Amino acid sequence: MSAMASTFLSNPEPNQVLFEESSYARKIILNRPHKLNSLTYEMISQILRNLEVYEKDPTVKLLILKVENDFTKGLNSLGKGKAFCAGGDVVGMVFTINEGHWSFGASFYKKQLTLDYMLATSRKPLVSLINGVVMGGGAGLSMSSMFRVVTENTVFSMPEAQIGLIPDVGASYFLSRLPGFFGEYLGLTGGRLNGNEMLACGLATHFVLSKDLPLLEKALSEVASWDASTISRVINGFSSKISLKKDSAFRRLETINKCFSRKTVEEILSMLENEAANGDNKWIIRAISSMKSASPTSLKIFLKSIREGRTKELNDCLSQDYTITCHMIRRSFNSDFFEGTKAKLLQKDKQPKWEPSRLELVSDEFVDQYFEEVDDDDWEYLQLPDRPNLANTWKSKL
């Protein structure tokens, strides 16, 4: 084992991810409920190894990504069912970087993005059963699935700007392909969506009540075909109709488009503040508050990233994410990621000292530096495997 791997795997928790065979299906089961199934280096490595085996096995017709849920007890069963995946283990990565070198974090992130890409381009159809909170790295795993099944327990969010990162793991690809400028709204505000809203905007492909997931799993396991239409028909048999609440952000798409289509973050905030004076303002006030508490640098980087992502393929978006994040964990230009993690996740005083502290102090030239190569002799751009069916999921679903 390499020294770098040893750093990540010191005192590893057992059974962080489980693998099951069930007729024609293979199940990948996230099993770290006490940490909201946040992803570790060991989990990512194990999933990559098993994915390679499954792709070569002709008896495997489809893959199921899920969590170790107790469906009979729902959200009150000691954390089980509470989260699908709350993201990467950010706190663990920060400790690892602080105890060693920033490249340890880069190694973790490279492996995570590689897994996201391998799942997105999997030779076997992937069904994600998203029953619980899905944020950050959890979205990176599941939003690339051919089938994204949500429930009444699902909550989606990309709040990375609150800790000095950006919505990454391909978010500039899958958020930029949502209707209008809804992706900008989600990434800049960290706004939350429930399962109904995810289906309505296109982040999900099916809505199934959580009580029906065990039967759906059983039915999927018996599908002796990797034909997408066949799998879709099976899921449709368990699907439920949805309705959006009156206060759903997706019902405000016209206003969102009006505000979040603006060229700069400053203009977006100004438009939101103007709209807040016009009555229907509770969701707008939340959006403004969230943006004003986030890292100004992160907001500006994300806006540039998602605008460029609209014309890029997934592999290019992931490569761009890697470059940007390497700068952030290396502290190339500021320490917002470490400041945000300390204030929001460790000390929890929720008073990060961002640098620069205000949007108007973050110049375009400052932002552009994050998109350029890292000035380090050992660093190189992310190189992803050459895969044939690149991101067919999003081309067909959105």
Description:
The chain is α/β, with parallel strands linked by helices and about 400 residues long. Helix content is about 45%, strand content about 10%. Strands 1-2-3-5-7-10 form a six-stranded mixed beta sheet, with helices on both faces. Strands 4-6-8-9 form a four-stranded mixed beta sheet. The longest helix is centred in the N-terminal third of the chain and has 19 residues, at about 100-120. The protein starts with a helix and ends with a helix.
Describe the protein's topology:
Blueprint: H1 3-9, E1 17-22, E2 25-30, H2 41-56, E3 62-67, E4 83-85, H3 90-99, H4 102-120, E5 126-130, E6 133-135, H5 137-142, E7 147-150, E8 155-157, H6 171-174, H7 182-189, E9 193-194, H8 195-201, E10 206-207, H9 213-221, H10 228-236, H11 253-260, H12 265-276, H13 282-293, H14 296-309, H15 314-330, H16 336-346, H17 364-368, H18 392-397
Parallel strand pairs: 2-3, 3-5, 4-6, 5-7, 6-8, 7-10
Antiparallel strand pairs: 1-2, 8-9
Q: Helix count, per DSSP?
A: 18
Fraction in beta strands:
5-15%
* General shape: globular
Q: Main sheet: which strands, in order across?
A: 1-2-3-5-7-10
Number of strands: 10
| Backbone structural class | alpha/beta
Largest sheet data: 6 strands, mixed
Radius of gyration: 20 Å
Q: What are the low-pLDDT stretches, counting only 5+ consecutive residues below 50? A: 1-9, 71-80, 393-398
Task: Please provide the ordered H/E string of secondary-structure elements.
Answer: HEEHEEHHEEHEEHHEHEHHHHHHHHHH
First-last Cα distance:
42 Å
What percent of residues adopt helix (DSSP H or I)? 40-55%
Q: Whole-number average pLDDT?
A: 90
